[in-house]
Write a structure and sequence with these properties.
Pfam families: ABC_tran. Keywords: Amino-acid transport, ATP-binding, Nucleotide-binding, Transport. Belongs to the ABC transporter superfamily. The protein is an alpha/beta fold. The chain has nine helices and ten strands. Strands 6-7-8-3-9-10 form a six-stranded mixed sheet, sandwiched between helices. A four-stranded antiparallel sheet has the order 2-1-4-5, with helices on one face. Helix 7 (about 165-180) links the parallel strand 7 (about 155) and strand 8 (about 185-190). Helix 3 (about 95-100) runs parallel beside helix 6 (about 135-145). The two termini are about 35 Å apart. Bound molecules: adenosine-5'-triphosphate. The site of adenosine-5'-triphosphate has 11 residues, from strand 2 and helix 1.
Length: about 230
């Protein structure tokens, strides 16, 4: 589904991603983990097209999307929920969701029922402004907005950051459901290991701009945690 081959990325003179490889099989739920500053968000932004790569390839569904615009990648099925959510605070919940409809390219003007089914709170609050929602509700809105595009791959950057535990649980359940019931492939960055273990089936440990270890989530043992994640 997603095959990243030997990509390099720089911010000015700073070399951030180093010949990075990653393979995410279709139907899986992969979690990128690693200490602060190792390049997790940068990698997600390279996949969505928000940041250019210097060399290497990003293959999505068999197509090389390395040079495609963010809009085109979204149209071909890459959905993105950014860190910090980035919803529009002055627009209503419904307007936030409708904005994404325009990017679908199929002319539909109806928000898919699935979004309100997954997140009933968005239905209840659809006429409220995005900025009036709690952090957890805004995260649900950000996920709903990505789902409006009917993605095949859903990318989430720290979806539980700054969110109260009961909403974290709901978000975890929705991600699992999207993956297991609806067959969505998922790639997320997550710092909270218990959440990562519950939601994901694969892990990718990043260190200094590379994927240094990967495997099934059950293989994420104490040695790896000590070596790559302890601070
Ligand atoms: N816009 C930018 N300009 C210059 N350097 C940047 C920029 N954004 C990030 N960096 C640097 O790139 C490196 C990787 O950052 P990135 O945000 O990808 O790491 P991360 O693993 O997601 O970290 P965190 O867990 O703290 O979010 C860091 O050293 C960071 O300081």
């Amino acid at each position: 589904m997603l095959n990243i081959q030997s990509i390099n990325q720089y911010y000015g003179q700073s070399h951030i991603l180093w010949d990075l490889d990653l393979e995410l099989p279709e139907g899986s739920c992969g979690c990128l983990i690693g200490r602060n500053g190792v390049g997790k968000t940068t990698l997600l932004k390279c996949v969505t097209g928000l940041l250019p790569i210097k060399d290497g390839q990003i293959i999505f569904n068999g197509k090389d999307v390395s040079k495609a615009s963010t809009e085109n990648r979204a149209r071909t099925g890459i959905g993105y929920v950014p860190q910090g959510r980035e919803i529009f605070p002055l627009l209503t919940v419904e307007e936030n969701l409708k904005i994404s409809l325009g990017a679908r390219g199929d002319g539909t003007s109806k928000i898919p029922d699935l979004i309100y089914e997954l997140f009933p709170v968005l239905q209840e609050m659809k006429h409220r402004r995005g900025g009036d929602l709690s952090g957890g509700q805004q995260q649900q809105l950000a996920i709903g907005r990505a789902l409006v595009l009917d993605p095949k791959l859903l990318i989430l950057d720290e979806p539980t950051e700054g969110i109260q535990p009961n909403v974290v649980r709901d978000i975890g359940n929705v991600i699992r459901r999207l993956n297991e019931e609806f067959g969505l492939t998922v790639l997320l960055v997550e710092q909270k290991l218990p959440f990562a273990r519950k939601v994901a089936d694969h892990f990718y440990i990043m260190e200094r701009g590379k994927v240094e270890a990967t495997g099934a989530m059950e293989e994420l043992n104490e040695d790896l945690v000590q070596r790559y994640l302890s601070v």
